[in-house]
C-alpha cells in the first residue's frame, strides 16, 4: 500500500496494475459504466447536481485553471497526470483498484469464503450506513475549506488546497457510485442526501462533529489535513479490508489519493514550525507575533484542538456495533492481513483505559468490542511521527521547546472520557478547574484573531507569507515558484 510517501508532492507509484480509465465517457471510469445503462443514467442525472454543489459550496476564489493531478492508467507519472485545468472541468470519475478474482474474506465468520461481489441481504443496512457516513465526510471538508483560497500563503499552497478539494469531491463520487450501483432506490436517495446535508448547517448538518467545525485559517487547514484526513486514512484502511469487494477496491484507490492530503498536512505544519523557530532564534523571544510568526504556544493549541476532535471520529472505545461489523466481515482492522492472529478474535482481549473512582486505570476487555480503540491506537502512533518531525525542526534550530500530542482523554466529546475533564498531560480535573485552564490549552478568540491577522493572500509567483517557510521542492518536479494557479481578474481586485 502506498500511503507512506508523505515527503514529496509527486503521486505514489501504483502497487499493482490499474486498469485503463475511459476518459471518452461523460463520467470517466474503469468500471465499464457503458455496459450498465441503468446505472449510467442514474449517475448522469446525479452529475449536474454534484456540479451545482461544487459551484455553490466548493472553492470560492475565482480561478482560471489550476495545476492538478488527475488519475489515469498509464503515463510518465505512473497512475497520475498533471496539467493546468479549469477546476469545474476536472474529470471527477469512478476509479476502483484492480479486482483480484481470487480474493477471499480475510477475517470474521466468513473468513476464507470468496469476497462478495454483491451486497448480502443480511448486511445491506449496515453496509449502506458505513458507505453513507464515509461519503458524508468527503464533501464536508470541501465546504469547510471553501473560503481558504482567499488567504493562501502562496500559489503553491493554493494549488495543494484545490488538489485536496477536487479529490475529496472525487471521493464523494466513489461512495455515490457504490450507493447507486449496489443499493437501488434507497442508495439513490442517500446519494441525493449527501449533497443536501451541509457542513455547519443548523437544520441538516454533516453526520460527524469534526466535519461541522469551520476551517478558519491555514494553520487549522494544515492541522485538519494532518489529523482529520489521517482519521480518513485509517477509516478507509478498515473498509479496504471489507468482504464487500467493490467497497474494498474503491477504498484502496482512495488511499493512494489520500497520501497527498497527509503530505499537505505534515509539511504544512512543518513549514509553519520551521518559520516560527527561525523567528524565535532571530528575535530571541517566543513572542513572535509582532514579527509576523505564529507563536509555538498557539500552534500547540491548534494541535490540541484538531487532535482531540479527530479522536472523537473513532467512536466509543468499546462498541458492540463494531464487533458485529468485524465478525460479519464488513470492516476489518488496520492492516488486517498482516496481523498474526486468528482474524476472528473470539477469545482475544485488548487493554483499554478508562476512568474508575477518580483515576485513569487499565482494563482488559474482549478485543472484538475494542476495535475502535485498536484502530485509534494505530492512528495515534502514526500521529506521533509527524510530531517527531516537527520537533526535529525545533531541535535543529537549537530550541528547547517541543510540541506534543495531548492525552487521549483531553477535550473529548465521545467515548469513555467524554464525561471527564482531563488536562493535556493526563491529569483528571474538576469541571471548574478544567474550564478555568482551557483558555491556555485550546485556541481562544484572541488566538484565532491573531492568526487570522497574519492570513493575507500571497499570489505572486514564488512569493510566500512571512509566517511559513517555503517548501523544499515543488509539485511533480516543478519549481517552487511555478505558476500553479492562474487567478481570474476579480480574484486579484
Ligand atoms: Fe477523502
Ligand atoms: Fe482526504
Automatic annotation (TrEMBL):
<dbReference type="GO" id="GO:0010124">
    <property type="term" value="P:phenylacetate catabolic process"/>
</dbReference>
<protein>
    <submittedName>
        <fullName>Benzoyl-CoA 2,3-epoxidase subunit BoxB</fullName>
        <ecNumber>1.14.13.208</ecNumber>
    </submittedName>
</protein>
<dbReference type="Pfam" id="PF05138">
    <property type="entry name" value="PaaA_PaaC"/>
</dbReference>
<dbReference type="GO" id="GO:0005829">
    <property type="term" value="C:cytosol"/>
</dbReference>
<feature type="region of interest" description="Disordered">
    <location>
        <begin position="1"/>
        <end position="20"/>
    </location>
</feature>
<dbReference type="InterPro" id="IPR007814">
    <property type="entry name" value="PaaA_PaaC"/>
</dbReference>
<dbReference type="InterPro" id="IPR012348">
    <property type="entry name" value="RNR-like"/>
</dbReference>
<dbReference type="InterPro" id="IPR052703">
    <property type="entry name" value="Aromatic_CoA_ox/epox"/>
</dbReference>
<dbReference type="InterPro" id="IPR017635">
    <property type="entry name" value="Benzoyl_CoA_Oase_BoxB"/>
</dbReference>
<keyword id="KW-0560">Oxidoreductase</keyword>
<dbReference type="GO" id="GO:0016491">
    <property type="term" value="F:oxidoreductase activity"/>
</dbReference>
<dbReference type="InterPro" id="IPR009078">
    <property type="entry name" value="Ferritin-like_SF"/>
</dbReference>
Amino acid at each position: 500500500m502506498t500511503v507512506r510517501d508523505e515527503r514529496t508532492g509527486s503521486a505514489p507509484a501504483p502497487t499493482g496494475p490499474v486498469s485503463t480509465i475511459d476518459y471518452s465517457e461523460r463520467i470517466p471510469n474503469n468500471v465499464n459504466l457503458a455496459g450498465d445503462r441503468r446505472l449510467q443514467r442514474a449517475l448522469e442525472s446525479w452529475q449536474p447536481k454534484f456540479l451545482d454543489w461544487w459551484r455553490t459550496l466548493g472553492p470560492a476564489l475565482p480561478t482560471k485553471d489550476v495545476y492538478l493531478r488527475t488519475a489515469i492508467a498509464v503515463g510518465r507519472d505512473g497512475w497520475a497526470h498533471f496539467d493546468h485545468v479549469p477546476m469545474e472541468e476536472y474529470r471527477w470519475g469512478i476509479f476502483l483498484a484492480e479486482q483480484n478474482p481470487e480474493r477471499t474474506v480475510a477475517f470474521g465468520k466468513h473468513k476464507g469464503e470468496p469476497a462478495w461481489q454483491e451486497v448480502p441481504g443480511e448486511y445491506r443496512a449496515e453496509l449502506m450506513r458505513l458507505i453513507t457516513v464515509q461519503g458524508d465526510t468527503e464533501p464536508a471538508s470541501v465546504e469547510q475549506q471553501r473560503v481558504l483560497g482567499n488567504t493562501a500563503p502562496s500559489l503553491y499552497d493554493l494549488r495543494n488546497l484545490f488538489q485536496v478539494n477536487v479529490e475529496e469531491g472525487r471521493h464523494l463520487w466513489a461512495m455515490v457510485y457504490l450507493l447507486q450501483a449496489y443499493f437501488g432506490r434507497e442508495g439513490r436517495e442517500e446519494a441525493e442526501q449527501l449533497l443536501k446535508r451541509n457542513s455547519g448547517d443548523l437544520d441538516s448538518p454533516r453526520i460527524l462533529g469534526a466535519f461541522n467545525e469551520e476551517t478558519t485559517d491555514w494553520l487549522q487547514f494544515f492541522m485538519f489535513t494532518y489529523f482529520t484526513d489521517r482519521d480518513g486514512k485509517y477509516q478507509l484502511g478498515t473498509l479496504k479490508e471489507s468482504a464487500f469487494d467493490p467497497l474494498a477496491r474503491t477504498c484502496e484507490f482512495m488511499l493512494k489519493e489520500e497520501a497527498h492530503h497527509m503530505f499537505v498536512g505534515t509539511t504544512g505544519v512543518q513549514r509553519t514550525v520551521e518559520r516560527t523557530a527561525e523567528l524565535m532564534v532571530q528575535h530571541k523571544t517566543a513572542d513572535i507575533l509582532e514579527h509576523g510568526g505564529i507563536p509555538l504556544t498557539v500552534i500547540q493549541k491548534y494541535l490540541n484542538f484538531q487532535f482531540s476532535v479527530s479522536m472523537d471520529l473513532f467512536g466509543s472505545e468499546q462498541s458492540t456495533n463494531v464487533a458485529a461489523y468485524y465478525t460479519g466481515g464488513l470492516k476489518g482492522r488496520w492492516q488486517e492481513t498482516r496481523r498474526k492472529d486468528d482474524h476472528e478474535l473470539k477469545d482475544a482481549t485488548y487493554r483499554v483505559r478508562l476512568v474508575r473512582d477518580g483515576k485513569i486505570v487499565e482494563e482488559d476487555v474482549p478485543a472484538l468490542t475494542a476495535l475502535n480503540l485498536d484502530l485509534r491506537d494505530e492512528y495515534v502512533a502514526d500521529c506521533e511521527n509527524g510530531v517527531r518531525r516537527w520537533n526535529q525542526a525545533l531541535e535543529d534550530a537549537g530550541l528547547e521547546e517541543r510540541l506534543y500530542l495531548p492525552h487521549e482523554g483531553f477535550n473529548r466529546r465521545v467515548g469513555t472520557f467524554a464525561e471527564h475533564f482531563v488536562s493535556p498531560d493526563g491529569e483528571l480535573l474538576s469541571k471548574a478547574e478544567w474550564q478555568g485552564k482551557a483558555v491556555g490549552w485550546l485556541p481562544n478568540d484572541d488566538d484565532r484573531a491573531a492568526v487570522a491577522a497574519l492570513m493575507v493572500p500571497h499570489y505572486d509567483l514564488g512569493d510566500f507569507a512571512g509566517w511559513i517557510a517555503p517548501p523544499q521542492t515543488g509539485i511533480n518536479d516543478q519549481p517552487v515558484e511555478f505558476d500553479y494557479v492562474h487567478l481570474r481578474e476579480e480574484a486579484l481586485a
